[in-house]
Amino acid sequence: MSWDFQTDRPIYSQIIDHISQKIICGEYMPGYRLPSVRDMANQAGVNPNTMQRALSELEKTGLVRVERTAGRYVTEDEELLQQTKSHLAEKQIEAFFNQMRQLGVEPEQALALAQRYVNEKK
Amino acid sequence: MLGKLIKYEMKSSARYLLPLYVSVLILAVVNRLGALWLQNMPGSSTWEGLLMFFYVLLSISLFVVTGVGILVRFYHNLLGQEGYLMFTLPVSTSANLFAKLISAIFWIIASMLVFFLSVLLLTFSSTWQISDIIDWVSRTFSGFELGAVFVLLEICLLVLLSLASFVLLCYLSMSIGQLANRQKLLLSVAAFLALQVVISTLSVIFLSHNAAWLSTSISAWIDSMSPQAAIHGVLLGSCLGALVECAILYIPCWLLLKNKLNLS
Amino acid sequence: MEQTQNGEFTPQTVPETAMAPVSDNRAEESTAAILSCKHLVKQYGGNPALAGVDLDLPSGKIIGLLGPNGSGKTTLLKLACGLIPPTSGEILIQGLRPGIESKKIVSFLPEKTYLNGWMRVNDILAMFKDFYADFSLETAKEMLANLQIDERARLKTLSKGTQEKVQLILVMSRRAKLYLLDEPIGGVDPAARDYILRTIIKNYNEQSTILISTHLISEVEQILDQAVFLNHGKIVVNAPVDVLREQSGKSLDAMFREVFKC
Question: What is the predicted ipTM?
Fold first, then answer.
């Protein structure tokens, strides 16, 4: 029972995405102490080296911070979390509009359809 | 490490040899008791015959199983799939070879002792007394000097070395046989026969060329000594010869296992 | 093979993307290689099973030795185990020639079972403890207990899958420097495969290297750090796996099929 990975893209970047997602949506709460590299690698079903690399990259983004002897913690920086959330959301929106364009639906049309969808759901 | 290898080797062989040895001894006792109790009962001869038949059968299988077991152990454990374990253990090739050889000689001697013991049990008479045995022992050995004990030891050594050389001959044949990718058994048997032929041929050639020289020098040498010393000389000389034969068989066997191991 | 204008040879079948520079490993050249081969050649009669292999494997990695049947993978493993001598060239395990000392730090898992079926599991545990100073009895017992394998059972009575797990447990319970696994997940059901891969990951440590020889690439590629492709006794690819994926946009499995297209 490991995380789902696609093997045609580097695994470490997929791990980064996976963990970022969990942080953004709150599954990993701000200030949450991440399990050890080995435990996380075991959970994910990947090589500890790969997990190590992914976590190092995450540290660079600031989503994860390291306290030398204590371990790795999810950042409590609300602003950063919001920024990252917006950024990821924007990427999804971009992907949505690209998909629509492929169906032959122009952005304004797509926006209108989206609004209608939201109204109906209320 | 050699000790450990020998330990595991003995354990593995004991698993199928000990039950056999014990059965032979038990059957010998059963035969003896049967002879005593069924003596005057009608139809006893058929029972006795049957018991004796099984005893003889088991005794023959005693030697056959010991012999075949030695060969199979070597083949299976070193040249078969188990070879992947045995040759990746942190032990030398010679340790592996010696463990098998020592174990083989042990079981050959053990089988002979068990047979001897079974014969004693078979013919055991309640009229025998410990004092009789002690008498017999002291009578047989009283006429002997110290030298006789040594002669006995030398004979034992000669027997051991001869056994070793035969076992090594079998091991070498199998080591040659494993070089083939198919029909390893066939090649082993062929190698065995070929080696026998080569050894006999070489002995004949050696002796025929040097017969005169050897007999004169040996008889001169013997004449120069007392009879007892001569006996020692001949026995030790034969031991040396057997040792050389062992070495000549051991070395190629060792080389083949070290450099040409052909595990599937 | 085609000859360029400089006189260099490039194998035609290897896509350029696969000839990735081994950038990550350059930095680690300072640490001694666990396995080092220099112009390693092994010939059987007229056939070269290994036709000149140059390889330096660092410690602390899980490395895949990948190639079709007959590519020389098993020969390379046998040489590293000290089962056969090289025809020419050199192979060193942590600087040691294959021999008794190297066997102490190498743990080998062959493709088929190499244990005596009549032995009980605890007999084999005792035997490994006897011969290998780095064998951890507690680790082995723990793993056996997790799988609910009866220690008193004779190997013969266990299913094939369970026998293979026992062998894997024995091999991975050693604190060796180099683990050589020959087709560890071949012929095993998916659940067992999962267990085997997890056991391999769990036993990874920075001081040792795990070399997995297999042709079932899609199953193991997720856990590999580095991939070494072997074909006709020569190395055609040797690079970190993520680098290969980034450069080619393909999975290792897809790349393998391309490189070894008949």
Answer: 0.85
